Amino acid sequence: MSLAIFDLDKTLLAIDSDHAWGEFLLEQGAVDPVAYRQANDRFMADYEAGTLDMRAFLEVALKPLADNSPEQLAAWHQQFMASKIEPAILERGEELVARHRSRGDTLLIITATNRFITQPIADRLGIDELIAVEPEMVDGHYTGRVTGTPSYQEGKVTRLMEWLEDRDDTLDGAWFYSDSHNDLPLLETVDHPVAVDPDPTLRDIATQRDWRIISLRD
């Protein structure tokens, strides 16, 4: 039995759930239709380039959580799951998760997307363990701030090591599946790095290092 770690966006999902949530909020008329769209698209481009200012992104991304009631957010998320996430779940990704589950491996999603967005997705995929960006809550309401280290780039390694320490566990024999060169710090840390439908930068590096490259797309 080993630890099987999965990136979420564009790995087990065909889309980026963070960007899709922004698009969903635009469709609901919940955010400024011009400024928010420009910011959402700009941050997505910065992420793909590996130049994302995570703090600046989170200041924008978490504001709608603070601006709306938990009840409204929960109702929106139900619609979001049905309209955006369910069609984007990759069947072959679910099969990959099932293979690791059948082996008795511990399943973990680690994502740079926040827990509000990703916890219901992890639940849908039947993965109990989730490391995500943690939006701060006070008295049951989001504040728009983040707690702890954002799980992005080297932050994924930091958060994973904290998680392992809490469990008194190790990375021996661990697998990590990701599409993004932003995840190189963690891919370089595990025994079994796997590039999944990788971006061009990650594909080049995976090829050079003889890492396994797979596709979960049809």
Describe the structure.
The chain has 218 residues and is an alpha/beta fold. It is 49% helix and 19% strand. It contains 10 helices and 7 strands. It has a 7-stranded mixed beta sheet. Helix 1 runs antiparallel to helix 2 and helix 1 packs across helix 5. The longest helix is centred in the middle third of the chain and has 16 residues. The protein is globular and about 45 Å long. It starts with a strand and ends with a strand. The mean pLDDT is 97.
- Overall SS class: alpha/beta
Strand content: 15-25%
Q: What's the N-to-C terminus distance?
A: 29 Å
Kindly report the spatial arrangement of strands forming the biggest sheet: 4-3-2-1-5-6-7
What is Rg? 17 Å
Number of helices: 10
Helical residue percent band: 40-55%
Shape: globular
How many E strands?
Answer: 7
Report the biggest beta sheet as strand number plus sense, adding barrel if it closes: 7 strands, mixed
Mean pLDDT: 97
Low-confidence stretches: none
Order of helical and strand elements: EHHHHHHEHEEHEHEHE
